Amino acid sequence: MKRTPLCEAHLALGARMVEFGGWSMPVRYTSILEEHRAVRERAGLFDISHMGEIEVRGKGALRFLQRALTNDASRLAIGQAQYTLLCNHKGGIIDDLLVYGRGEEHYLLVVNAANTEKDYRWLSGLEPDAELVDLSMDTALLSLQGPRSQDILSRLTTVDLSSLSYYHFKEGQVEGVEALISRTGYTGEDGFELFVPWEAAPALWRRILEVGEEDGLVPVGLGARDTLRLEAAMPLYGHELDEMTTPLEAGLTRFVNFEKGDFVGREALLHQREEGLKRGLIGLAMEEAGIPRQGYPMLLKGKEIGGVTSGTYSPTFNRPVAMGYVQRPYTEEGTELEVLIHGKPRRARVVRLPFYQRERRVG
Fold first, then answer.
1. Are residues 36 and 167 in the same domain?
2. Is residue 179 domain-shared with residue 47, that is, in the same domain?
3. Which site from 113, 260, 302, 350 is most exposed, i.e. has the minimal number of CB atoms within 10 Å?
């Protein structure tokens, strides 16, 4: 397994380590419940250095991204980030990612850890008229999330965080380390992601935890990262997203710009839009005890109509929740159905996504 530069730091904090996307990663330090609540109420620090970073630069970089990705990268200002999708020719999702506009014809793609090599090969196979550089093993990524994250980070940088809008970034120093500071995250809370040199990560990790201790900052593992993102209905590749699923089915149509011209998968997606969707992604709240897990069937009057993609106990709402795909006629809010849990049907109902939405504390 690959190791992030913070592996020894995690072990020193007593983290339980697991394999994730080919990496050795902390799943929890204390308990998932405690770490989840810390992020919702105070702040949490995540090591997400396993994520992939691919630089696209040179003349033709924008033209290439417009052909490769679903969203309209021409709308990106320098210092702005954008959520987008990489699709195959059938419209299936190869990956979901963020694009950062770093300069004229200079972009940074942040991709899912398990997909980094696959994405790089796919992009290279599209005959780019720009330079692709994999920076993944040179770049560490720390994520500081929660309502107190701005107060904590402001003690370590002279960058004006109050003027940094959601899905925008600035470049500057954090505790003397050159960093790209992005107001993004995967928790549903306000927060920042810090791109720093690989070798600088351990000292910066320790310093952020030290400075944030008075605010209740704690290190957070993958377990709470998953419960947080599920409450915020943020899709996870390999669960809600895969190469057999299109952005339209996943409820991500707003990140597909059909007007910008041709891109990989456009014709297939147009055809699907014209024909009509046969299934859709739903939110599910359990009405009976039982945790719905990935792969569990969803039933209506004993007939299977879909399956769970992600499910957990929600610490915020004190009940089990899930996301999954069902046949299109059953996606309406309020639809009553059942989830087959350990061979027993348990009552549930379709609810509006996201389960959790904060008041944005930005600026």
1. yes
2. yes
3. 302
Task: Point out the domain boundary residue: 134, 150, 169.
Answer: 134
Question: How would DSSP label each residue in 165-194?
Answer: -TTBEEEEEETTEEEEEE---SSSS-EEEE
Tell me what the pLDDT averaged over the chain comes to: 97
Asked whether residue 267 carries a pLDDT value surpassing 80, the answer given is: yes
Report the pLDDT value the prediction gives residue 350, as an integer from 0 to 100. Answer: 98
Asked if residue 338 belongs to a domain, the reply is no
> Looking at 134, 168, 202, which one is the last position of a domain?
134
pLDDT of 272 reads 98
Q: Provide the domain limits for residue 203.
A: 2-51+137-231
For 273, the token pair is 């839009």
Residues 38 and 167 in one domain: yes
Q: Where are the alpha helices (DSSP H) in 217-288?
A: 222-231, 266-275
In a domain, 201, yes or no: yes
Query: How far is the CA of 139 from the CAs of 142, 193, 197, 347, 360, in angstroms?
Result: 10, 12, 5, 46, 28
Q: Are residues 151 and 227 in the same domain?
A: yes
Amino acid (one-letter) located at 274: E
Judged by DSSP in three states, 218 sits in: strand
Q: What is the pTM of this model?
A: 0.96
The DSSP element (H or E) to which 305 belongs, if any, is strand 303-314
pLDDT single digits (tens) 184-220: 999 999 999 999 999 999 999 999 999 999 999 999 9
